[in-house]
């Protein structure tokens, strides 16, 4: 591609470069690491990873996170959010989009400004497929503040009875049928 010009006896050491030959040979773009496919994830892998891999193969996935969880990296304005929804999709064409046993990573756009986000699985407590609406929740990962808003019977698993010293007031009995009124 280059040759030394010896017309002057090698005194000037001029190098000729064939730029056309350089353009003809494209430089390969760096290839991002391929996240694991859902079919290649065994039961020993984190459940949230397996679910995300399955949903992302369909299309866009909205994840619901508690941004206050340790090691969560988001724009500072979201630091105190206990319920933040973020969308992920292969169609976004993000060169740094990756997910593995630790969590999700990608440069997402917030108000037109990209920010590299790093979200551990421990911060995620919900996922929804934007394609078919399939949804998965992890109640054990809910923020305490959200759990406190749930009715008493929803806070306790059916297998474990509510504690006897519960200070929650009893829920009112359900109405047998709704009442309809005509509004003028």
Describe this structure in words.
- The chain is an alpha+beta fold.
- It has a domain at 38-151: SH3 type barrels, CATH 2.30.30.
- Helix content is 15%, strand content 23%.
- It is built from 4 helices and 9 strands.
- The strands form 3 sheets. It has a 4-stranded antiparallel sheet with strand order 4-3-8-9. A 3-stranded antiparallel sheet has the order 5-6-7, with no helix packed on it. The protein has a two-stranded antiparallel ribbon with strand order 1-2.
- The longest helix has 12 residues, at 47-58.
- The chain is globular and about 85 Å long.
Question: Uncertain regions: pLDDT < 50 for 5+ in a row?
Answer: 1-6, 22-32, 158-166
Structural class: alpha+beta
Biggest β-sheet, characterized? Answer: 4 strands, antiparallel
Order of helices and strands: EEHHEEEEEEEHH
As a percent range, the share of strand residues is 15-25%
Label the CATH architecture of the domain at 38-151.
Answer: Roll
Which CATH C-level class of the domain at 38-151 is it?
A: Mainly Beta
Mean pLDDT: 76
* Helix proportion: 10-25%
Q: Work out the number of β strands.
A: 9
Q: Could you please say which CATH topology of the domain at 38-151 applies here?
A: SH3 type barrels
Looking at the structure, what is the overall shape? globular
CATH superfamily of the domain at 38-151: SspB-like
Provide a count of the helices.
4
Distance between the termini: 87 Å
Radius of gyration, in angstroms, nearest whole number: 28 Å
Strands across the major sheet, in which order? Answer: 4-3-8-9
């Amino acid at each position: 591609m280059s040759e030394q010009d010896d017309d002057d006896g090698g005194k000037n050491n001029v190098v000729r470069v064939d730029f056309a030959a350089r353009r003809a040979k494209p430089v390969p773009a760096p290839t991002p690491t391929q996240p694991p496919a859902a079919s290649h994830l065994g039961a020993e892998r984190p459940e949230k990873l397996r679910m995300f891999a399955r949903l992302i193969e369909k299309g866009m996935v909205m994840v619901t996170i508690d941004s206050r969880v340790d090691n969560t990296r988001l724009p500072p304005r979201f630091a105190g959010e206990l319920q933040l929804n973020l969308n992920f999709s292969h169609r976004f064409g993000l060169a740094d989009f990756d997910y593995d046993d630790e969590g999700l990573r990608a440069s997402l756009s917030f108000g037109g400004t990209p920010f590299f986000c790093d979200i551990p699985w421990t911060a995620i407590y919900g996922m929804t497929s934007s394609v078919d609406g399939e949804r998965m929740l992890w109640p054990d990962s809910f923020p305490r503040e959200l759990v406190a808003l749930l009715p008493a019977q929803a806070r306790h698993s059916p297998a474990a009875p509510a504690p006897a010293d519960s200070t929650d007031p009893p829920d009112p009995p359900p109405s047998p049928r709704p009442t309809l009124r005509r509004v003028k």
